[in-house]
Design a protein that fits this description.
two-stranded antiparallel sheet, 13 helices
């Protein structure tokens, strides 16, 4: 089963549009795990086990692992999701994008080394920089469009032929790059008006929506402006608000409750 098929199946089976971002920060780990030799893997594994019933996918952020020299923990974590929670896809958040020969290695990193089901990608070097990802028809390519960070508009809002650049990216992906039907777009929850504009441009292309929770994005506005006609089309990501819902021994159950609350909040708006 390819990534898009797995994601759609998960939307239905779990009745959830929630994605839990796995962004380990050891300084925030509970004391019973913080000093463990394999703390990064153990913390993320416990979060995965606690929240799996409430999610449509998981999204580990590669920099949080690589900065700690924990690439092995990342590889084992993705394998763990696949083995112990089959059917839940994993998006590797690495925002790769480079010239074609290098991009091929980045695609191999995401899909062969880490066995991710999808990867985030930066389109600003042009199509050849993401083509090796697009060619993997069974895997997802989650392309940056209108991101959630405060400085997003510095480049993404620049007018090109009378339209903001992010709208050109949206149209290019939907109309030219999505030949295998394996593309998604990153559109931040912090920009509800832009969510609506991008949805109008791309039809049913799914969105990865960061920015709820700690970044303050409004769930009702996201769902209202960006859901597809069947009430899906969205992967709404939350990281810190779920991972660190508690700093105590109950961190896993607190994360599960935060994921459940977010799922129910989203579903009430669908």
């Amino acid at each position: 089963m390819g990534f898009m098929q797995a994601l759609r199946a998960r939307w239905e089976q779990a009745d959830s549009l929630v994605c839990v971002g796995l962004d380990p920060e050891p300084a925030k780990f509970p004391s019973r795990i913080a000093d463990a030799p394999d703390a990064i893997f153990e913390f993320c594994r416990d979060i995965v086990d606690a929240t799996a019933q409430y999610v449509c996918c998981f999204k580990p952020q590669i920099a949080h692992f690589a900065a700690l020299g924990a690439e092995d923990a990342l590889q084992r974590l993705i394998a763990y999701v696949h083995s112990d929670h089959p059917g839940i896809p994993v998006i590797l958040d690495s925002k790769r994008g480079d010239i074609g020969s290098t991009a091929r290695h980045y695609a191999a990193e995401a899909f062969d080394r880490y066995a991710a089901d999808a990867v985030t990608a930066n389109p600003y070097l042009g199509r050849d920089s993401v083509q090796p990802f697009l060619d993997r028809a069974d895997r997802g390519v989650v392309i940056l469009c209108r991101t959630s960070n405060p400085g997003a508009g510095d480049l993404q809002d620049l007018l090109v032929a009378g339209q903001p650049l992010y709208q050109h990216v949206a149209a290019k992906v939907a109309n030219e790059w999505n030949t295998h039907g394996n593309c998604m777009l990153v559109v931040g929850a912090t920009w509800p008006e832009q969510l609506k504009q991008v949805r109008d441009i791309v039809g049913n292309v799914p969105f990865l929506v960061p920015g709820v929770g700690a970044q303050g994005g409004d769930v009702e506005a996201v769902v209202r402006n960006a859901k597809t006609a069947d009430g899906t089309g969205l992967v709404i990501s939350s990281s810190r608000a779920i991972l660190y819902a508690s700093a105590g021994a109950d961190f896993a159950s607190a994360a599960a409750e935060a994921a459940r609350v977010l799922r129910d909040q989203i579903n009430a708006c669908r």
